[in-house]
Structures are given as C-alpha cells and as structure tokens.
Design goal:
heterotrimer; A alpha/beta (324); B mainly alpha (289); C mainly alpha (332); B: 289 residues; mainly alpha; C: 332 residues
C-alpha cells in the first residue's frame, strides 16, 4: 500500500428485506480510498451505487440493513459506531453531496442558517460572527456571491443550489466526501462548471472523494480511479487511464464502446439486454445473460474480484483464465 | 371502462383483506344494520311513538333500554331511529358527492374561466361556516322532514368532493392516454366518461363516505338543537328531547346514553371505513401507523 | 409581485363579506311569516290588548322603524351600508338592545373557551401526528395516538354530555354548566378566574379530546411526505441532532398545510360553538344564536350569522397574510 487509506471498505453487504426474500443491493464490496483521491463509481440505476453511498453514511432506511463488512475511517469501523458517535462523525469526517440537490435544501430556511446549523451541530466553540464569516468565505470558494447567504433555496437556480451543497459539504473540512450523482439534475453546460468547482475545492482540502454516477464522460474527466458496479457487486476497479485503454471486464468494455467518441465515427451500440432484477438474479455471474463472451463456467460459478496487477482488479472468469 | 372499474374493485378487495381498519369499520356498521333489520321482528316498534308505554322506567326485562318521559320504548326508538339517521346521511352524501364531483369534473376538465368561477365559488363556500347557514335555513323551514333536511345539508356538503376531484382531474387531464384519446379525435364527453370517470371513482367513493359522515354530523347537530324532524324519532331528536326534559340531571341515563353510543358506533365505523379508503386511494399513507 | 398576492387576498375577503351580508339579507326574507308578525304574536301572547286600528298602527310603526316599508333594493342597500359599518340593528325580542352589543358581550366567553381549546389541540395534535410518522419516536406514541383518532370521529358535544354525566352528575367534581357560578359577580380576581376555569374544564376537555386526533391525522399525512424529502436526508447526513431535524426540518415544513386548516378551524370555532355552548349552557355567541333562533329574533340571527362568517373570513385573511412569512416560496 502506498499510504494510509482515508476510507477502507471491506466486504460490505447491504440487503433489502422483501417479503421472505432478501435482496442483496450491495454484495461483498471491497475498496480503499486514499487522501486526495477521486474514486468514480459507475453503474446502471439499480446497480447498488446509491445504496452504497447511503450505507457508508449509515443513512439507509428500512427495509435496507447492513448485513456485514466493515468501513474503516480514521482508525474506526464506522459501521459499528454508536448512534451518537456516528452523528458526530457525519459531516465532520464524512460529508455528502446529495443526488437530488434540487430538493436537498430546506425550502423554508435561509441558506445561511442551513449552513450554520451544520457547524453548530459539531462545534460549539465558534461565535455567530465567526460562523457568518466562514459561510461567506465558503460561498466565495464555490463562486457564489455573499448575498446568497440571505436567500431561500427557491430563489436560486439549479447550478447555484448545487454550489451551495458543495460549500455545505466542505464546511467542516471532512476527510471523505461522497458525491451522489452531483450533477445529474443540471444541464450539460452547468454540469461541467459545477464539476470543476467540486474538483477544485476537493483538491484544496485534500479530501478523498467518491463520485457516484452513470455518465462515463464526466467520470473520465474527474475521477482518478473508476469502480464499476453491476447488480450489487463491484466487477472492476482500475485507474482511469488503464480503464479506458484496456478495460478488463466484458461489461466495462461494453460501457466504453457505448460512449460517443469524437475521433472515430461509429455506431452507438447500447448494451444489449437489461440489468437483471435483484430479486431474481441469474446463476453464476450475474452478467452472463448479456455477456457476448460468456462460457459455460459463467452460468455456474460466481466470479470473485481478483487482483490483476498492482492497481487493477476485475471479477470475471475469462480475465482470470487469461492471466493464469 | 368496465375493465378499469373491475380492476379497481379487485385491488380494493385484495387490499381490504389485508387491512383490519376496513373490516372493523364494516363490522361496526353492519352490527347497526343488523339491529335495524332484525329489531322490528323482535319487539313492537310502534312503541317508538309517544304515550305507548309507561314513562321513566329504568331498563328491565320488559323494556331492555327503559322508557322516556314521553312514554316511548327506548329500544324501539333506537331500532326505528338508527336507519332514519343513516338514510338522511346517505341521501345527503349522494347528492353532495354527485353535485361536487360533477362540478369538480367540469372545473378540472375544461379549466379556464369555468374552472376559475367554480373554484372561487368552492373556496368562498368553504370559508362560510355551514352550521350557521344550516341553522338559519332550518329555522325558516316550517315542517322539517328527513328528506328536506338531507337536501339542505347536501347543498352545503359538495365543496370538499368538488375540490379533491378537481385536483385529481387536473392531473389526469395531462396523462398520456388522455392526450392520446384527444389526438385520436374522441369527443370530450367520451373522454370524460371513458378515460377520466373510471379513474376518479375510487376517490369519489372515498369522499362519499366522508360526505355521508359529515352530513350525519351536521344533521345530528341540527337535531340536537331541536331543528330536526319533529315527528320522526331520529337519534338526534331523541338527544334533544332528553336534553329538553333534563334527563341528564334527573339520572335517566338510559334516555340519552344509548342514542349517543349508537351514534359513536356509527361515526367510528364510518371513520374507519373512510380512513381505509383514503389509504387505498393514497398509498403513501399505508406505510405508517 | 408580493402586492398582487396581498391585494387578491384582501379582495377575496371583501367578496366573502359581501356574499355573507347578501345571504343574510335574502335567507330570512325567503322564510314564511314576517318578523313583525312574530313580534305581534309575542305581544299578544303576553296579553297586550291589541286589535283593529291599533294593531295596524303598531305594524306600520314597526315596519317604518325597521325600514320594511321601503322598496326591496333600498332595504338591501341600507342593510349593506349598516352591516358594513357594523351596525347590526336592534334585537327584536329585547328591543331596544343593539345586536352588536349583545355580540360583544358574548364574544369573550366564546373566544376564551373555544379559541384556547382549539389552539391547544392544534399544538398537541400536530406534535403527536408528527411523532407518529417519526421513525425514532417512542413506541407508546404510536400506540396511544390512534385512540385519539377514533375519538376524533365522535361529535364533541356528544362526548361532552357523557363527560358532564360522569364528572358533574355522578362524581360531582365539576359544575354541570354555565360559565361561572350563579350569584357570583364577574370581576378580575383569583376566585372568579378559578371559578371560570372550573366551568370551562369539561367543555374544553370535550373539544380537545375529540379534535386532537383530527390534527394528528392531518399532520401524520403531511409528515410522511416531508420525511421522504431529500432535504431530510441531507439534514441527517449533516449530523444534526435528532431534535433539530425533527423540529426545524420535518415539523417546520409539515406544519405549513396545517396552518391553513387552522385558519378555517379557528373561524368555524365560533359556529361550532353553538352546540357545545347549548350543551353546557355557556353564555357565548353560540348560545346567543340558539336563543335568537328559538325566539325568532331575526335581526339577532342575522347579526350573529354575519358575525360568524366574518370571523372565518378574518381568520382566513390573517393566515393568508402571514403565510408568506412562514413559507417564503409564496410570492406569486
């Protein structure tokens, strides 16, 4: 290992209880995150990426529950913390930029107070004047005018609201930021600018960041490493350059080939078939019904996420056989 | 149209079997129904008229609920009075919901000026305290019968159905299948009857129970104040007579308590049914409590 | 932009008041019989010897006195202008007492009893309702609140009768009715206030017991929706204390629709007061209306109904005007 991890997740499992059955929304997910690093997590909707984000903050709601694994942050397993300790840890160590930023701010409270209460909940030593100064400073860092502090959410545009959420996320200088589809509700032009702002503040803080999304293009620009999720499992983890140059898992290959490319003019191919229902997963590798290169073994045996080289991991029988 | 209605009924039944609220509510209501259906075969309901039996008797084997100061057999009064009260409520409920649903449908579907006028009228009427109007109207009607009381009450109970149904129609109007129907050149009448009506029926049913319960409440209110039908032994009038003759401080509890208990059973039954229907119409409420 | 909202609300208020006044003018005139006839009947019943010319003279005098000899539109305009100046005329039964005088005397009792109990059940009910939807609420909340919901289906005056029977008649703990003990003179000292409180206990209790559930039910519905909002997830992610999330984020937003209902409820308090005041012999507005109806005191009935509608319109207006302060989004 090159350095101390900011967040180390081992064998995390999150299940929904549906009727008699148990739906594994996040199944045996393991990854590490280093300070200053940006890890992109991609997958189709329902692949478990948002559940993963919520579970890491322990904000998952019943019927979801954590079935096992650990998540070490600052020497502690946050999955085993007492409620009150977890509350204190949230935001000060681990903050969230929510998916639906359009509705993520309390509609009847001024921006100023929504930012202030995050500070007050964790740090009673700051005076009101200091807090206000800090808020104005933070708004400046995300390129918002001071006047935003006095406004209500409905007076802001979508991009401004998202900036407020970014400012809010760094207010206590956490070591890990989870950004759950931080730009999905914005239009394309605004997306880039907001993403750039997010990357800037994250770098200044040297915080680790998990960016969840399904936009491969955006990921290619901002993530250092990419993790691909399929049906609740991580199927490939690799640094961004080698991921795009030499994808290992057949699903990754299909994801990349479905991207429009400026250089070569070729037909856009979607991925044939659709993601299986988590209630009724195929046997063996969950991807095998859609996989163009599946063999008999894929129908019977579930592949595990194995180290391919020092930085890459993939969960596919074929990759494994090639390597050996 | 019938396909959709059938589907509503099916899902209503399957939901019903899972919620204790509706079953309990229906059980309470059917116990009252049973009482008024079987009652007349067990005792002489003519004794509900004044001066039929000895006065002021406490409950005994002969008069299970005792008799009042006017010489009525209280059990007979309950058996005769309950269906009268329910009849008044149902009548007012039907008229009120049909009136309200039609107005809501028209306002929601046609929009524009029509909607503005109907909505303004609805909102204004909602702010006028119904009991005040009821009292003044009731006081100017010389002979009150169950039917004209129902009509008077119905005229003041269409606003809530109108408002909820309008809101529902507004959102239905923008549904793709309604757009399709319009593009396909279906007439407004056909769209309303075939595409929109079936979908507001569950809501109309839910507001019908609410309106009936509200109508009974208003009716009882009028009756307790002595403005109800003088000749029919309804539950509310019984409470009025008991009040007028100071039954409470004379200790004649069997005079006023049974009609109150029957009314409580009736209201709680209607409440449970309407709450269950609300949950059926608005599934978000199902999760908690 | 904000002005347009205020102006529209205020216009609406006047439309309601005008409609109320008009209704008040029309309804009694549609009724069979006429007010002077009713007075004469009463005079006769009291044994006043009238007849022949004398009676016609009295009728004419009365008609002129109350303006009933004028054409109908003059009557209407005069009625409107008087009503809007809050000159509600004289009581017929208690001539020459002014209607507005009687109203103002009855008002404090109604407001004191009903407004206080309504506000109390609004506060308590909203809190309980919010707790019912709150996943981390103590378990007993979820068990005992449904009881109140069932009680909310029961008309309060019926529950009132049962309460009077138990606490006043059987146990003799509290008075049977009235606003204060007969024989005491209303004045501002502790004894009198305690006496008033003792008398208000049962009517207030019956109102609170039956309306807490209504508020709880409404609040639970809105709260369930609010708890699913994204801003609640973010509030929790921020690591705010539970108490803060519950009050400043969840309840604060869920209360908004409830406040609109409160306006209507506060307004209907006055008309709802009729039954509870009759059952408890409480000398408020409702009691006044009830007696006016029984004695066919038309001007009194008109005055009281107009006043009742006015209270609703005023409370709706007040809530509409302060609503933008509670919900900053309202400025269209």
């Amino acid at each position: 290992m090159r350095q101390e991890t900011a967040l180390q997740v081992n064998g995390l499992r999150v299940s929904y209880l549906a009727g008699e059955g148990e739906v594994k929304a996040v199944d045996d997910v393991t990854f590490s995150l280093y300070p200053g690093e940006r890890l992109g997590v991609v997958g189709e909707s329902g692949s478990g990426k948002t559940t993963l984000a919520l579970a890491l903050m322990r904000l998952h709601k019943p019927p979801a529950s954590i079935k096992g694994g650990e998540a070490r942050l600052g020497g502690r397993d946050i999955l085993k913390l007492e409620q009150e300790d977890m509350r204190k840890l949230r935001w000060s160590e681990l903050s969230l930029i929510p998916q639906g930023s359009m509705n993520s701010l309390n509609p009847v409270v001024r921006i100023k107070h929504q930012m202030a209460d995050a500070i007050e909940a964790h740090d009673s030593s700051m005076t009101r004047a200091e807090i206000n100064k800090h808020i104005v400073h933070l708004l400046g860092r995300v390129s918002l005018p001071e006047s935003v502090a006095e406004m209500y959410p409905h007076e802001l545009s979508g991009g401004m609201k998202q900036r407020v959420c970014i400012a809010l996320a760094i207010i206590l200088e956490p070591s890990v930021i989870i950004a759950d589809e931080p730009t999905s509700a914005l239009d394309v032009v605004v997306q880039r600018v907001v993403m750039q702002t997010l990357n800037d503040v994250q770098q200044q803080l040297n915080a680790a960041m998990i960016i969840i999304g399904h936009d491969m293009g955006l990921m290619a620009q901002s993530a250092d490493r990419l993790a691909v999720m399929y049906a609740g499992k991580m199927v490939e983890v690799a640094p961004i350059a080698s991921f795009f140059n030499d994808p290992q898992h057949p699903y990754s290959k299909l994801l990349i080939s479905s991207l429009p490319s400026p250089e070569e003019k070729r037909e856009l191919t979607g991925i044939p078939g659709s993601q299986p229902s988590l209630l009724d997963l195929p046997s063996g590798c969950a991807f095998h019904p859609r996989c163009p290169v599946a063999v008999e073994r894929c129908k019977q045996e579930i592949p595990v996420l194995r180290q391919i080289d020092s930085q890459r991991r993939a969960a596919c029988h074929l990759v494994e056989e090639q390597a050996s | 149209m019938f396909g959709i209605i059938l589907r509503h009924i099916k899902s209503a039944i399957s939901y019903t079997l899972r919620t204790p609220k509706l079953l309990l509510g229906l059980a309470l209501l059917s116990s009252l129904l049973l009482l008024s259906l079987v009652g007349p075969y067990l005792i002489d309901v003519d004794n509900a008229r004044p001066i039929s039996v000895p006065t002021n008797r406490a409950p005994s084997a002969e008069f299970p609920l005792g008799t009042d100061s006017g010489g009525r057999d209280m059990l007979a009064v309950i058996i005769v009075g309950t269906p009268q009260t329910v009849r008044m409520g149902l009548l007012a409920g039907i008229v009120g919901v049909v009136l309200g649903a039609s107005l809501g449908l028209i306002a929601g579907y046609y929009g524009g000026k029509v909607d503005m006028i109907i909505s303004a009228a609805t909102d204004t009427m909602l702010t006028i305290p119904p009991l005040a109007i009821l009292l003044v109207v009731a006081a100017s009607v010389r002979t009150m019968s169950v039917e004209n009381m129902a009509i008077i009450i119905a005229l003041l109970s269409w606003m809530f159905p109108a408002r909820t149904i309008r809101a529902q129609v507004l959102s239905l109007r923008e549904q793709p299948y309604v757009h399709m129907a319009r593009l396909a050149g279906l007439s407004n009448i056909r769209i309303v009857f075939e595409e929109i009506m079936p979908n507001i029926l569950p809501l109309a049913a839910a507001s019908f129970v609410g309106a009936t319960s509200g109508a009974i409440l208003a009716g009882i209110g009028l009756e307790v104040l002595g403005m109800g039908p003088q000749r029919t032994p309804t539950l509310g009038m019984t409470i009025y007579w008991a009040q007028l003759y100071s039954a409470l401080i004379r200790g004649l509890w069997w005079w006023w308590l049974p009609p109150i208990l029957v009314l409580i059973v009736l209201f709680v039954g209607l409440f449970l049914v309407s709450a269950a229907l609300d949950e059926f119409v608005n599934p978000r409420l199902r999760k908690t409590g | 932009m904000k002005y347009a909202y205020f102006i529209r609300r205020i216009m609406m208020f006047f439309v309601v008041v005008l409609m109320a006044a008009t209704l008040n003018f029309i309804i009694p005139r549609m009724a069979p019989g006429d007010p002077i006839g009713a007075v004469l009947e009463e005079l006769r019943a009291r044994g006043a010897s009238t007849g022949g010319d004398a009676e016609d003279e009295i009728v004419a005098a009365y008609r002129a006195r109350f303006g009933l000899d004028q054409p109908i539109y003059i009557q209407y305009l005069r009625f409107l202008s008087n009503t809007l100046r809050f000159d509600l005329g004289h009581s017929i039964s208690y001539y020459p007492q002014k209607v507005e005088r009687a109203l103002l005397r009855a008002l404090p009792w109604t407001v004191g009893l009903l407004a206080i109990s309504t506000l109390f059940s609004f506060a308590a009910g909203s809190f309980f309702g919010a707790m019912m939807a709150w996943p981390r609420a103590p378990g007993f909340m979820r068990r005992f609140v449904p009881m109140f919901m069932v009680l909310s289906a029961v008309p309060y005056y019926l529950l009132g009768l049962i309460l009077v029977y138990i606490f006043a008649f059987v146990m003799r703990l509290l008075p049977l009715g009235g606003a204060y003990s007969s024989g005491t003179i209303p004045r501002m000292d502790l004894d009198f206030l305690l006496d008033v409180a003792r008398h208000g206990m049962l009517p207030a209790l019956s109102i609170v017991l039956t309306s807490v559930g209504f508020w709880a039910l409404g609040m639970r519905g809105v709260m369930v929706t609010v708890l699913g909002e994204d801003y609640l997830t973010l509030a929790e992610a921020k690591g705010l204390p539970d108490r803060r999330i519950f009050f400043a984020y969840a309840m604060r937003n869920a209360l908004l629709p409830q406040v609109t209902s409160l306006a209507i409820a506060l307004g209907t308090v006055a008309s709802g007061s009729v039954l509870v005041e009759v059952v408890f012999n409480y000398p408020g507005i409702g009691w006044l209306l009830y007696n006016a109806l029984r004695t066919s005191d038309y001007y009194m009935v008109q005055g009281v109904t107009f006043f009742l509608i006015l209270t609703v319109a005023v409370s709706v207006l007040v809530v509409d005007l302060i609503y933008p302060l509670l919900d900053p989004r309202i400025e269209r």
